[in-house]
Amino acid sequence: MSSRTPADRLGDLVEAARHAFRRSYLREPAHTVAAPGRVNLIGEHTDYNEGYVLPAAIDRHVVVAAAPRTDGTVHVTAIDLGESSSFDLQAINVDTAHPWSNYQRGVAWALQGAGHILTGMDMVVTSDVPIGSGLSSSAAIELATAHAFELVSRLEIDGVQRALLCQQAENDFVGMRCGIMDQYVISLGQEHHALLIDCRSLEYRAIPMAQGPALVICDTKKRRGLVDSEYNRRRQECERGAEALGVRALRDVTPETLDARASELEPVTLKRCRHIVTENQRVLDAVAALEAGDLPALGELMNASHVSLRDDYEVTGPELDAMAEAAWGLDGVIGARMTGAGFGGCTVNLVEQEALDTFLARVPEAYRAATGLDPEIYVCRAVRGVHRVK
Ligand code: ADP
Ligand code: MG
Predict the structure, then answer these.
(1) Ligand nearest to the CA of 166
(2) Is the distance from the beta carbon of residue 167 to the nearest atom of ligand 1 less than 6 Å?
(3) Is the pLDDT of residue 98 over 70?
(4) What global pTM score does this model have?
(5) Rounded to whole angstroms, how far apart are CA atoms 234 and 45?
(6) Which residue has its alpha carbon closest to ligand 1 atom 6?
(7) For the structural domain made of 6-209, what CATH number should be given?
(8) Which of 2, 37, 261, 342 is the most exposed place for a label (fewest CB within 10 A)?
(9) What is the pLDDT of residue 219?
(10) 80 lines ligand 1 (CB under 6 A)
């Protein structure tokens, strides 16, 4: 484990970005922006059923340093990749040679599409959000880019609107189907809080996180091979369930209604619906537990969420199950569950501070023994969303 504190880590990224900016463009950056990664505490696969999610922004960041240009060109240097790409704001096209730059292009395209007048800019980007682990490095890149455009172009965009435009960039320019959760919490997250987001109304409430326990994310290092086809299949199964039950979305079904009408659904559809309907209730119960300071209740809900994703929604797989089980077996673990779409990626864990050292020694060991894979562990805190760094 690194002994660097979270503030050190962000400070190092900011220094690296500003230094690289000066070297690349031979002038001072005018603005530096930080956008965090995110983790979902509970509420998995509920977003596309118009339900509830409870994510937090975490202290791993994408940092952008930028300064305006007068010629309507955007020049991007990706320090971590050692590559650059530029485009003209009047004719934004997809760059197949530098696919990473389509996030910046997509954000510019979406902002302009909404009627915002953009100024060109030079920018550099660097990050310590792991790529492709499910902590949403992509949405962090989008939000950092959007905020940099707001600063150089002197725009004021409301946080929800900014999130929607970044989602549009990812959906329609990059071509990746995703819900609104990631962009939303990275746009609007608050320090020491999670956000309860209603994915139907797009309203949110900041929920204070328990200050005591550590928020620990365990990356299985299993990449999510099945995820696209199975994700689409689950969405269809949910739509079928909603149709059979005569509702617009499974959000409108309570656990009691589902029990009463179980015989109307075929067995697989029933299992999928049961996960969504009980998971929505667990999000609301988790909020109540956090607000009451009832950590054991919160932990039970996290564990139950994993079991429901394993048995009813069937999206965990041996690696995520092994990681959750390694945590469940230890004293001082309040709760542990898979987070993200499933089939690989990460678990999220709440761990008592006194138990953290044991956790960091034992969970990787047990996971390695079960799977032969080397995990990565991130000890995190809940931080504010995208912001300008002074
Ligand atoms: P994640 O789960 O991390 O969001 P995605 O596949 O959705 O994974 O997004 C990862 C992509 O985002 C990368 O392939 C790259 O195009 C872009 N990206 C992430 N981090 C960086 C970075 N540090 N520099 C440049 N591009 C990045
Ligand atoms: Mg992503």
Answers:
(1) 2
(2) no
(3) yes
(4) 0.96
(5) 9
(6) 132
(7) 3.30.230.10
(8) 2
(9) 97
(10) yes
Give me 100's structure tokens. Answer: 């990473």
Mean pLDDT of 140-151: 98
Architecture, CATH, for domain 214-380: 2-Layer Sandwich (3.30)
Residues 154, 104: Cα–Cα separation, whole Å: 18
User: Which pLDDT score, from 0 to 100, does residue 3 have?
Assistant: 58
Which residues are registered as beta bridge partners of 350?
Answer: 215, 335
Task: Give yes or no for a contact between 76 and 25, defined as CB atoms under 8 angstroms apart.
Answer: no
Instruction: Answer for the pair 209, 192: CB distance below 8 angstroms, yes or no.
Output: yes
Closest ligand (CA of 37): 1
Atom of ligand 1 nearest to the CA of 136: 4
What's the CA-to-centroid distance between 381 and ligand 1, angstroms?
21
Whether the per-residue pLDDT at 8 is higher than 90: the answer is no
Bridge partners, 68 (sequence order): 121
Q: What is the mean pLDDT of the chain?
A: 96
Give yes or no for residue 137 CB within 6 A of ligand 1.
yes
- Residue 48 amino acid letter: Y
Task: Enter the DSSP assignment of 340.
Answer: S
Instruction: Give 11-37 pLDDT, tens digit per residue.
Output: 999 999 999 999 999 999 999 999 999
**Is 43 touching ligand 1 by the criterion CB < 6 Å?**
no
Per-domain boundaries in the chain: 6-209, 214-380
Atom of ligand 1 nearest to the CA of 170: 7
Tell me the catalytic residues.
Answer: 182
Region of 67 (left: φ > 0; alpha: ψ -120 to 50; beta: rest) is beta
Sheet holding 193-198, edge to edge: 52-53, 193-198, 204-208
377 lines ligand 1 (CB under 6 A): no
Please indicate whether the domains covering 6-209 and 214-380 agree at the CATH topology level: no
Measured from the Cβ of residue 74, the count of other Cβ atoms closer than 10 Å reads: 27
Atom of ligand 1 nearest to the CA of 139: 4
Distance 100 CA to ligand 1 centre (A): 7
